[in-house]
């Protein structure tokens, strides 16, 4: 789910809540996880591309088209606001039809919100030159903050380009000339390009069951009507790639075997099998490392790594070229602190953010100094990174209005145990580190040596708040009393 923007900003991106106080609303694309609740909690104005608006109005016919203001890719426009006007520019997000990234420039700084994206070097070339560096050379004007799609930020393998993945699908079909039916699991907005290339290569239209896939049929009729047909005799059929895929695939193969027909070909162009789904065996795990051709699984489904999101490698390269001062992940599956760029560049300097950005985060520079001290001790621990990312459980509710967005997602019991062991070790390390670094301030500030935000940090981790050391005067008086006792 998308996250709420900091409360110091006058706009929201892809979030729709009844308590929102934002004056301007931006929608990056038409996938349902980014438009959830838009029908019940929508406010004027909503900025989006014309295609995204049309797709959304098809999904939610109860919405009024007058709520939307169209934006053009590559065009800048000025938004008037009581806190000061700001400029917005939309750029192609390389994700799905109508999807864009938004660049915000104003008194609050320069912020890029990627929405969902496949942030390739070619995609970055669309951004203004001043924000994009070259190899070994930083940009003239680094972005203050990037709200980044980190969906596959934990996936370290190199993913094929979209074009390469589409060619793998076509090659797989060529290698199975006897397959009477080819089932393509391309029923998600953003996979139309695969269907178009298959249709053009083999000179055949794609059969889409209008009753089963009513919404996707409507989307295709809007975007690429020339490839559609309603004739089930067509060799190419749209197939649902989500609900009980393997069960339905096995049923299709068994049906062909029972009737002594050639097996159908079932192709799934998606990165989910490679990056997210459970490993079935060591053999299949080895197969998943093949990214240059289609791979068959134990259920008879052929997989191709077609991704609409960036891999970790692509994200790291993009961040090196953009060199932003701060990065926030918009996806709970991967926190920004897990990226090497963020570890190296966003926490080494106390002044990573300018004063205006600290104000947006509702934090003082004094607080940022304290967190700068702590970060060095915990930057390798995902559990404690999560705590710092959200600035304790209380501050998290201020930064992200949905606390669930900041939860750590653990994939296995072994991973949970591993993180628990690291957390226990790091908690004691944080405690010791804080005592050392803060001893000077304890001498002067007494019990107020720790700020409220740091005390909240300790409590959120169930760690006792360190008690202040006695003042120098108290120590000297105690020493005098001891000497008197001995002389007596």
Automatic annotation (TrEMBL):
<dbReference type="GO" id="GO:0006303">
    <property type="term" value="P:double-strand break repair via nonhomologous end joining"/>
</dbReference>
<dbReference type="Pfam" id="PF07522">
    <property type="entry name" value="DRMBL"/>
</dbReference>
<comment type="similarity">
    <text>Belongs to the DNA repair metallo-beta-lactamase (DRMBL) family.</text>
</comment>
<feature type="domain" description="DNA repair metallo-beta-lactamase">
    <location>
        <begin position="227"/>
        <end position="334"/>
    </location>
</feature>
<keyword id="KW-0234">DNA repair</keyword>
<keyword id="KW-0227">DNA damage</keyword>
<keyword id="KW-0808">Transferase</keyword>
<dbReference type="GO" id="GO:0005634">
    <property type="term" value="C:nucleus"/>
</dbReference>
<dbReference type="GO" id="GO:0035312">
    <property type="term" value="F:5'-3' DNA exonuclease activity"/>
</dbReference>
<dbReference type="GO" id="GO:0004674">
    <property type="term" value="F:protein serine/threonine kinase activity"/>
</dbReference>
<keyword id="KW-0539">Nucleus</keyword>
<dbReference type="InterPro" id="IPR011084">
    <property type="entry name" value="DRMBL"/>
</dbReference>
<dbReference type="InterPro" id="IPR036866">
    <property type="entry name" value="RibonucZ/Hydroxyglut_hydro"/>
</dbReference>
<dbReference type="GO" id="GO:0003684">
    <property type="term" value="F:damaged DNA binding"/>
</dbReference>
<dbReference type="GO" id="GO:0036297">
    <property type="term" value="P:interstrand cross-link repair"/>
</dbReference>
<protein>
    <submittedName>
        <fullName>DNA cross-link repair 1B protein</fullName>
        <ecNumber>2.7.11.1</ecNumber>
    </submittedName>
</protein>
């Amino acid at each position: 789910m998308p996250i709420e923007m900091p409360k110091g900003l006058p706009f929201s991106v892809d979030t729709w809540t009844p308590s929102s106080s934002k004056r301007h609303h931006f929608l990056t694309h038409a996938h349902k996880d980014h438009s959830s609740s838009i029908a019940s909690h929508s406010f004027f104005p909503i900025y989006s591309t014309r295609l995204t608006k049309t797709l959304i109005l098809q999904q939610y016919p109860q919405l009024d088209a007058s709520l939307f203001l169209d934006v053009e890719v590559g065009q800048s426009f000025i938004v008037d606001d009581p806190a000061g006007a700001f400029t917005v520019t939309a750029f192609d997000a390389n994700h799905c039809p109508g999807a864009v990234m938004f660049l915000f420039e104003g008194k609050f700084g320069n912020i890029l919100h990627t929405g969902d994206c496949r942030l390739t070097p070619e995609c970055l070339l669309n951004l203004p030159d001043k924000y994009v560096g070259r190899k070994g050379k930083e940009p003239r004007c680094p972005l203050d903050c990037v709200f980044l799609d980190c969906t596959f930020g934990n996936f370290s393998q190199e993913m094929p380009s979209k074009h390469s993945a589409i060619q793998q699908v076509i090659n797989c079909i060529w290698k199975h000339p006897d397959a009477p039916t080819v089932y393509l699991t391309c029923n998600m907005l953003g996979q139309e390009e695969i269907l178009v290339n298959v249709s053009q290569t083999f000179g055949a239209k794609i059969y889409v069951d209008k009753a089963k896939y009513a919404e996707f049929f409507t989307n295709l009729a809007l975007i690429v009507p020339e490839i559609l047909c309603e004739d089930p005799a067509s060799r190419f059929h749209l197939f649902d790639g989500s609900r009980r895929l393997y069960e339905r695939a096995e049923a299709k193969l068994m049906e062909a075997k029972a009737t002594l027909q050639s097996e159908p070909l079932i192709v799934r162009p998606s990165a989910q099998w490679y990056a997210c789904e459970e490993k079935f065996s060591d053999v299949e795990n080895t197969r998943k490392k093949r990214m240059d051709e289609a791979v068959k699984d134990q259920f008879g489904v052929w997989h191709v790594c077609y991704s609409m999101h960036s891999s970790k490698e692509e994200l790291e390269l993009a961040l090196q070229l953009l060199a932003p001062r701060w990065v926030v992940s918009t996806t709970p599956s991967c926190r920004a602190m897990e990226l090497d760029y963020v570890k190296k560049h966003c926490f080494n300097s106390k002044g990573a953010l300018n004063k205006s950005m600290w104000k947006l985060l509702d934090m003082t520079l004094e607080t940022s100094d304290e967190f700068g001290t702590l970060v060095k001790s915990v930057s390798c621990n995902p559990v404690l990174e999560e705590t710092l990312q959200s600035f304790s459980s209380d501050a998290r509710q201020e930064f992200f209005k949905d606390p669930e967005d900041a939860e750590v997602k653990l994939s296995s019991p072994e991973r949970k145990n591993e993180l628990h062991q690291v957390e226990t070790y790091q908690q004691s390390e944080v405690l010791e580190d804080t005592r050392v670094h803060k001893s000077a301030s304890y001498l002067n500030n007494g019990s107020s040596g720790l700020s409220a935000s740091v005390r909240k940090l300790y409590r959120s981790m169930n760690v006792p708040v360190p008690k202040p050391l006695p003042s120098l005067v108290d120590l000297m008086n105690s020493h005098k009393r001891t000497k008197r006792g001995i002389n007596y």
